[in-house]
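Researcher: Structure prediction, please.
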Amino acid sequence: MKIQYSLFDTLLEPVFVLNAEQKVVYCNETAAIVAGLSIRKITRGMKFNELFQFGEPIEALDNLIAVCDATPYKEVTFKALHADEGKVQITLQPIFDSMGDKNWIVFVRDVTLEERLQKKYRAELEQKEDVIKALEDAKAQLEDYSKNLEQMVADRTRELSRLNQTMSALLDSLGQGFFIFNAEGKILDVSSKACEATVECKPDGQLIWDVLKLPENKVEGFKKWMQTLFMEMLPFEDLSCLGPVTYPHSKERNISLEYHPLRNNEGAMEGVVVVASDITSLIEAQKQAEREKEHAKLIIHMIKSKREIHRFIQEAQGLLLQVREEVSKDDGPYNTEELFRNLHTLKGGAALFSIKDVAEACHQAEGLLAELNECWTHPGFIALRGKCFEIDEYFEKFLNQTKEILGSSGMPDERQIEVAISKLNHIARKVGSLPGGGVVAQELLLELAMEPVARFIEPYGDVMTHVAGQIDKMVAPLKITNGNIMVIPEIYSSLFATFVHAFRNAVDHGIELPDLRVDQGKPAEGHVEVTFNLAHNTQGTYLLVQIKDDGGGINPERIREKLIQRGVDVAKETDQEVIQHIFDSQFSTRDQVTDISGRGVGMDAIKNAAEDLQGRVWVESVLGQGSTLFVEVPYITEFHKEKSIKPAA
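Model: Predicted structure follows.
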């Protein structure tokens, strides 16, 4: 068994036990005093010759292995590296245990130890006397303090009461709700009077999730956020923004919530301060500023694009007429897809010319119509009808503004244009029936009735810029190729009006975020190009429109997934066939509806408009490189008697 060196603990003489490497494996307290270090530090690998310098060499220490018997005491002077000088008598003795390990005991008889111990104990005695005196002084002070304690408590109570009153008055003077919750979610008894208006209660003592009216299914998530907040696993500023940012006020006030840490003197977080602010006026001011900004844009559009505004008015009037007819039926609209397309196209055109009220009302009407498609109810239909009538009112307001800005002469009514165009067409037909008159008739229409196709597309450059700004993307100016091809506006206006969906989709669905584009080796800003061509075949001449972007392309697997969710069997379709389903009615890859996309009626509207002209549409795409929308329609250069002239967009 191992030798218990603890039996040397009671010896007054210094005792060291060394191994073959001269490392101290044991020393008693007296030995530690001589060395001037703690026992723990000495026995953690220090060598004996690191503790002392002797006046003359001790041969036995330099050759421990050779020491087999106890050596005679040798008296030498020494200097401890971490203590005083002195004189000692040293002897070494080998020692074996039952395990076969061999160590050496070094007995050190310190001739100067007694004097050193006397100094040590004298210093301790003086220290104790100082402590006793300090205790006596403290006792005297405590007695004096006790005599005045009652008065001090009364004075302090009055001071705290005054401070509390001042703090309460200060908090109540704020127009913001102010309260604090701890790590358990309990709100402390400190809050401002404004809480009664902002969070509609006095929150003291309540649980934070109850005060904020969190739905039951969100309470657990809030508790996890709160726990992470107090653990400070991440900076408070990075986590606080993940909490609820608004309070659901019963009177539809806009209440914002901010969070600030409450820390103690050591910097540990003891609570979270919640500041609830009524920002209803600020939100209304921002909305008013936005309305004024949009109105300014509208005025600029009217001045710069009179003809395009006129076309939009004519197209919108036709769309609104169809919308009114659908929602005026007592049993509800029977053609919801047509109603969806009309509202979506009207919304796109209104947004293009910054007619914000009309665009927002159309978006809200789309939402009501989507709910009716899920579950038809008569109250829901009445709400949709009211919203459509509201669109009419906003549009009439816009017409009045148009007349105020441009005057009645700047916006001739529809009937005058229709008569002029019809007469022009009639004259062109008569001229064309004369010998050699075909060229003259075509030139007549070209000069007076036809316009460059680019004129219909140029405004969509602003659409792309606006959409890109909303979703933090970058887009280069719209490029138009062969935009000088001439067309009769009344024939193609309905088709061109639906192109707004193609340009919005190109930015929203196609163009990637700038950082992602740069990582893929593309320029930060996306590019969209429109190319017009006239194609000829045995059936006649066709106008071919190509709208190409250099975005991420269409993922056929994503389309398949969505179609399967809708119960559509596409197992036998190729990737090229699958992506054509983007033209399906109400098909969208978006999981959530926004005011930009998600209804699934934009591409459907383009398809229907092209088919109305006996044309067709299709799309081609390369994943990671971009997509191209193809629209092919007959190229018509004259009106037909059996074809009514549609209002221009």
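Model: The first helix runs from residue 29 to 35.
Researcher: Thanks, that helps.
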